[in-house]
Amino acid sequence: MKNTKTLNTMVHSLRGKAAIALEYGLTRSGPMSMAPSQFGMFTKSDPSLEMPDLEYHVQPLSTERLGEPLHTFPAITISVCNLRPESVGASHIATADATAQPEIRLNYLSAAKDRDIAVASIRQARKIMTAKALKPYGPEEILPGPAVEGDDALLSAAGNIATTIFHPVGTCRMGIDGEAVVDPQLRFRGIDGLRIIDASIMPKIVSGNTASPVVMIAEKAADLIRNDSRF
């Protein structure tokens, strides 16, 4: 980006770091008081859809991959999240050793529809960045880069640069079938007196952030426990 400052350049100078710390110390405002994403919106990957299936998060910073150092040039990140992914992974205990890590198969982009949405999302984000209101800031694409074109190339780029959005669900799925981990009362099958009360019991991910639904799960679980005569 041009003609603006972002967190990238601010954190790469002592003066910028000092200004951030001073603002927070004096007014409890500024970068140290804010969430990474400063803008979000829900939209559709296809206009014919009845409801939005994409959520945007825009951050005033950029990096090669989440968790790595910020770039030294001014930039922003346009992140797009598929709200209703069809790809399903799995997590299983692989050994009786309680200290061993479980076997996790992520299976990202294994569903054809998810691959189509990934490509459509990149194209849509590119179109948004050509908006007239953004022209004064001269946005230039860094990742995946303007040279990456074609469905196959964009899909490969999505697989290389995409990451999770910190909302995993479903590893202890609720249901009435024999493979469900918990029953509709959230009771763990096989261990008496144990209930699971978090996003892992969701059979499918909700089309949005998981925090509020988990609060509602906890409220429901409190009622179930309160009305259980064994407690």
Radius of gyration: 22 Å
Overall pLDDT level:
93
Taking the sheet with the most strands, its summary is: 3 strands, antiparallel
SS content category: alpha+beta
Shape by Cα distribution: globular
**Strands of the biggest beta sheet: in what spatial order?**
1-2-3
Percentage of residues assigned to helices: 25-40%
How many beta-strand runs?
Answer: 5
Low-pLDDT windows of residues:
none
Beta content comes to 5-15%
The helix-strand sequence is: HHEEEEEHHH
Overall description:
Helices cover 27% and strands 10% of the residues. It is α+β, with helices and mostly antiparallel strands and 231 residues long. The protein has a 3-stranded antiparallel β-sheet. A two-stranded antiparallel ribbon has the order 4-5. Helix 3 (112-128) packs across helix 4. The radius of gyration is 22 Å and the shape is globular. The N and C termini lie far apart (60 Å). The model has no long low-confidence stretch (mean pLDDT 93).
